[in-house]
Amino acid sequence: MSELPDDPEERERALRDALHGIFGERTDEVLDQMRSQGLDPAALLGGKAPDPATMQHLMNQLERLFTSGDGPVNTEVAHDLARQVAVAEGDPSLTAAQARSAREALSVAELWLDAATDLPPSGGPTRAWSRSEWVEATLPAWQQLVAPVAASAADALATVLGDQLGDDAAAGLELPGMPGLPVFPGGSLSGLDPATMMRSLGSAVYGMQVGQAAGTLSREVFGATDVGVPLLGEPATVLVPSNVRAFADGLDSPFDEVQLYMAVREAAHARLFVHVPWLRAHLHALVEQYARGIRIDLDALEQQVRDIDMSDAESLRGALSGDVFGLHNTEEQQATLLRLETALALVEGWVSEVAATASLPHLPHSVPLREMIRRRRAAGGPAEHTFRSLVGLELRPRRSRDAAALFAHLLATGGAEARDAVWDHPDLLPDTADLDNPAGYADRRTAQAEEHADVDEALAQIFSESSGPSSDPSRQADDVSGDDPATGRDD
């Protein structure tokens, strides 16, 4: 093992550069975590060679980074980073009073919604979560959304970097900034082929980015459904009181009113996802359909990583950023993305309209609160932009106002039953043309109903005619008389 620099500052810089190549801006967090686990980073900086036991501990941590899990997203890395990001700005445990207040708000919201929609309550429990609890409950859904694209990107990265590194990769990579210190000296990865090592590297990178995005979202969301995509496996209504409080602090509305409005939106989402059984599968199918069409330009990727210096931390991190994979959308994918965007807008538009109807008689500030949420959802946030770089998907409904206008038109012309009938079948979902012309959607639905009625009537007439002779008493008498069809005489 090679000697480290004699100068303490150079040794410290070497260690930080090494960790920065792996952890980036998380380097300080990683060092703090090492200390919390009884590992003194200073031991790596003193003397001409690190203590073997200490270095082995560090190597074990790095090996875990690259080997945990066998999927396209390193789930342990994603989980650990998401938890760290979630608590970065504080995440105190909820008091009993906070939890009780949130659950009561969700219960009241259900009563108000009963008067606004025929869709029944979701039937699940009411919960109040901290940011960390939100991460634990929803991270599997985020990993599932990202996995199809991550698999394609990891394979591409393995192909390109494996070809470039060749046999050198099988001998073990070196820590950037610390030449001579192999990442896995004598470890279980030392005998792996370059493609497997590079695939593990891509999985770790995606794990970091998913964790960063999910952790950031945990500081922004108000419940389990307001992102617009179902994130829970079982029915439940959830509030994250700390985020509701942070949002309310910048408004003129009192906290209790803000919390009730968020509870109404959460409960409305839950009703929709539970009692429209095809909606969850429809949204996930659109994401998967998009992912199946992913085509990664290997030539472009190779061009981007061709000049990577594996001992340069910044070069490595830049090459492994979310945009390095050069995802190219085909025309078919663009059509799929448009359908997904429209579906998300319809979910948001329906929830916005139903929540407004339910809360208007009870909350004096419901109108400005609705407008604040609209603007917030339209603008998006840093986490949503991160997911866009990961999978090319926009998780914000650009046309939610148009969707809300369509549902308002249906309510005005046909009542709540007509508004909610949009969810009767996926074939009845409005498209972009319907969002442009809500009255046209109602006319199209009427024409479809009349067409179906004509078809049903024609089918009924056909079946009636075919079964008519058998119901004719005179024909039945002939059938049992035993007449010979050829002679007309009895046998």
From TrEMBL:
Coiled coil: none annotated. It holds the Pfam family Zincin_2. Keywords: Hydrolase. The keyword Hydrolase applies. Residues 464-474 have a biased composition (Low complexity). One of its GO terms (molecular function) is hydrolase activity. InterPro entries: Zinicin_2, Zinicin_2_N. Residues 460-491 are annotated as: Disordered. It comes from the Bacteria. PANTHER family: HYDROLASE, PTHR39420. This is Hydrolase. It comes from Isoptericola halotolerans.
